[in-house]
Amino acid sequence: MAKQNYDALASKIIELVGGPENIEKVIHCITRLRFYLHDEKKANTEAIQALDGVAGAVYNSGLGQYQVVIGPAVADVYDCVIKQLGTDAAGDDAQEAATSAAPKSEGPTSFLDLIKKGFQTLIGTITGSMIPVIGLLAAGGMLNGFLAILSEPSLLGWISAKSDTYVIIQSMAMAPFYFLPILVGFTAAKQLRSDPLVVAAIGAFLVKPEMAAFVNVKHVEHFMGISLNANFFGLPISIPSYAYSIFPVIFAAWLARPVGNWLKDHLPASIRSIFQPLFTIFIVGSVVLVVMGPAIIAISAAISFLINQLLQFNYAISGLLIGGLYQVLVIFGLHWMVVPLVAQEIAQHGQSNLNALINFTMIAQGAGALAVAFKTKVASLKGLAGSSALSAFAGITEPAVYGINLKYGRVFWMSNVGGAVGGLIAGMLNLHMYGFTGSLIGFPSFASAKDNPNNLWIFCLAAVATIIVSFAMVYFFGFKDSDTQSVKAPVAKKNVFKEAVAEEK
């Protein structure tokens, strides 16, 4: 498609939404241009919908946006719009995911409404912070999956897990996850209107090797079951591993705005450029360490205790509950705190019942994303859902959870139904797992000729049940294209994903 063709389409769209003087800001998501107009009534919706290359147009009063549906070429059309309007019209793309995940309302009318709105805002903030990095996570997850196939002796076994090649490729794959606090710090700060570079620096501080080393400190004090592994100005504190985590740095992005604004108002302009970020990093970083560290440790200890008690009580009931609810931990980045439990089980017993149950929650989220890929007619969403499903089947669920399932809330919960079914079957049939690698690609971890020759077949049965239930629940009850806040029936008759402008003959 010739690039100049988008200029004409962009010019017509600008004209039909009321001209440059009616446009306050414009942003875009994966399929739509989203205009903030001074007067939405000036937009000629019928004429815009008739444009070749536009799949529809609608004003969303809840978001205060006039939305023009383009499809895969939306970024190209957006660039042309900004070129014609000037960069002052460019809005903040990062806030789009949050606004679409948590629509505006007239305000809570009861305590339950307040709780609901707070939860929606929290989820909207999390997904809004994560969606800009979903492509990186999906790519890393798929690369890690390919590496597992190449290195697993029971599969291809072409690359030794002890080789330098393996280490290099795995580092490529897992770098976005390990340094997630830096990436999310930047995107969360853009969304929450704090300084992205300052918050990214706080994220870097949290995953610095010297900080990670505190986790392995052996001689520590304890307070109410919390290990105090560091000392900060004479105050004993607990420092967990912040690698792979997102919630602490989102908290930092939220706190950095009022702190940074106060410093901006009170520091002399001559020293502000240096001392504002300096004090913000120190103050916010210190609060994160003193508040979030102990909170994460306490929550993790409580989760570990409950999971242990549940596993000891009944394996089948554990499968039902853990299979249905474990991915909630993924939302807040707390799932990495369960890894020590899995490692302890494998070290003591040579297998892990807990990891076997967790495995089906990964498959379930992948199957849910796959159902969205099959059902949606939105080409860009279809592609994202498909790649996210592959990543989940390779053991990395974050792209599916944050990019698709959680964003369209019912998809997440309907997928969890399949996880609960798979976990229940695994518990009832006493499934064992002998390794760490999970999801579909982790099937060699279930092979055991000694302990239980049928163990691998039990895994296959539970995995198939998980996929069928999750896929069906999402396909029939969890998702429809209108959830994407796309256009209504008359517009849907058009081909949403035809090329933005026909090739000139």
From TrEMBL:
The active site is at residue 29. Signal peptide: none annotated. The chain crosses the membrane at residues 122-147, 167-189, 196-217, 237-256, 277-307, 313-342, 354-374, 386-404, 411-436, 456-478. The keyword Mitochondrion does not apply. It is a multi-pass membrane protein. Coiled coil: none annotated. It is found in: Cell membrane. It holds the Pfam family PTS_EIIB. Its main location: membrane. It comes from the Bacteria. Residues 7-91 form the PTS EIIB type-1 domain. PROSITE patterns: PTS_EIIB_TYPE_1, PTS_EIIB_TYPE_1_CYS, PTS_EIIC_TYPE_1. Keywords: Cell membrane, Kinase, Membrane, Phosphotransferase system, Sugar transport, Transferase, Transmembrane, Transmembrane helix, Transport. InterPro entries: Glu_permease_IIB, PTrfase_EIIB_Cys, PTS_EIIC, PTS_EIIC_1, PTS_IIB_1, PTS_Sugar-Specific_Components. This is PTS system beta-glucoside-specific EIIBCA component. It comes from Convivina praedatoris. The lineage of its organism: Bacteria, Bacillati, Bacillota, Bacilli, Lactobacillales.
